[in-house]
Amino acid sequence: MAKFDSTLDHCFSALGDPTRRMILQRLARGEASVSELAEPHDMALPSFMGHLKKLEDAGLVTSRKLGRTRICKLTPGAFTPAIDWLSEQSAIWEGRLDRLDDYVTNLMKERTNET
Prior knowledge:
By secondary structure, the protein is an alpha+beta fold. It contains 5 helices and 3 strands; from the N terminus they run ααβααββα. A 3-stranded antiparallel β-sheet has the order 1-3-2. α1 packs antiparallel against α4 (45-57). 10% of the residues are buried.
């Protein structure tokens, strides 16, 4: 199992908010300006910028200035640590469930043989 990785904490913390998840869903379709990203959200721009900062601090999003416009995009490979961790957890739990299934199956066989 992987050692403690603070990037996972930042990633999962950033993903913990529906506004930030919506921003990531939009950016999955391609780059977008801050104003385009902010448009569907009913909040003041400074509040919205706080969400973008959290995504940037987590390494999920990068931005650049293009004239007076700030353009955002997903960071390639940003979700790899989270995907790797979730895959490890999935393998652990699949193994546990397989062993539980084997135990229950053997227990049922033993009970059937006793009667």
